[in-house]
Write a structure and sequence with these properties.
CATH architecture of the largest domain: 2-Layer Sandwich
CATH superfamily of the largest domain: Pseudouridine synthase
Number of domains: 2
CATH class of the largest domain: Alpha Beta
Largest sheet: 10 strands, mixed
CATH topology of the largest domain: Pseudouridine synthase
Structural class: alpha+beta
Strand content: 35-45%
Length: about 240
């Protein structure tokens, strides 16, 4: 099924969009992916609105939204590879593997140099096994892992195979490492940060995350939520 794709600068008419479409949204920090869908749903007046690939509230970047008949394409794009820019902080570990969680381990005095990090990053390329974090929406026995975690219950999770298609170090300035990552579906960047720290014997967590690409769709072509609302007011007038 082919539906129109709304990008920044699109000049489509309302009649082109009335049956459904895809829209590229730059999700702001502190919004859930559901919050974005709800805002889009209320703005356009369509009941069917969904997204491809959840972004955690602290993360920002490209969220692919389907509306109307566009929702039928969400499963396809959820399976697509994705690209991220990640900021990893060494010296701290949290229960959620990111900056929003409870700090469970700290190590102020540690020595890491670029060559050590580069070697481990290289070893974590290609197909790897990754254990989903407890604070995730992945379900075990029909219940999301984060619900167990909030009750203080640790559930045994099976490692799954994911693929790190490409990993590039942008800079290293202790305690921060910025990376670009191109990964297969189902890859948790929080788990990647956690596992990188384990491999280097230094606590680590994900401090910032921005999704820059889903399939062939780019963040630079996306609307902010405010821009989309303004666009819709004009096109629907």
């Amino acid at each position: 099924m082919i539906v129109p794709v709304l990008k920044k600068g699109s000049e489509l008419k309302f009649s082109d969009l009335s049956n459904g479409f895809l829209v590229l949204i730059d999700k702001p920090v502190d919004w859930t992916s559901f919050d974005v869908c709800k805002k889009i749903r209320n703005t356009i007046g369509m009941k069917k609105v969904g997204h491809a690939g959840t972004l955690d509230p602290f993360a920002t970047g490209l969220l692919l939204i389907g509306a109307g008949k566009g929702t039928k394409m969400m499963t396809e794009f959820s399976q697509a590879s994705k690209k991220y820019e990640a900021l990893i902080q060494f010296g701290k570990e949290s229960d959620s593997y990111d900056i929003t969680g409870k700090i469970v381990n700290e190590q102020e005095d540690f020595n890491l140099d670029y060559s050590q990090i580069e070697e481990v990053v290289e070893s974590m390329s290609g197909e790897i096994e990754q254990t989903p974090p407890m604070f995730s929406a992945k379900k075990v026995k029909g219940k999301a892992l984060y619900k167990y975690a909030r009750q203080g219950i640790e559930i045994e999770r099976k490692a799954v195979k994911v693929r790190i298609i490409e990993s590039k170090i942008n800079f290293w300035e202790k305690p921060f490492l910025k990376m670009n990552l191109h990964v297969s579906k189902g890859t948790y960047i929080r788990s990647y940060a956690h596992d990188l720290g384990k491999a280097l014997h230094v606590p680590a967590l994900l401090k910032e995350l921005q999704r820059t690409q889903v399939d062939n769709f780019l963040l630079e072509d996306s609307f902010t939520i405010e821009e989309f609302c303004t666009f819709w007011e004009k096109v629907a007038a």
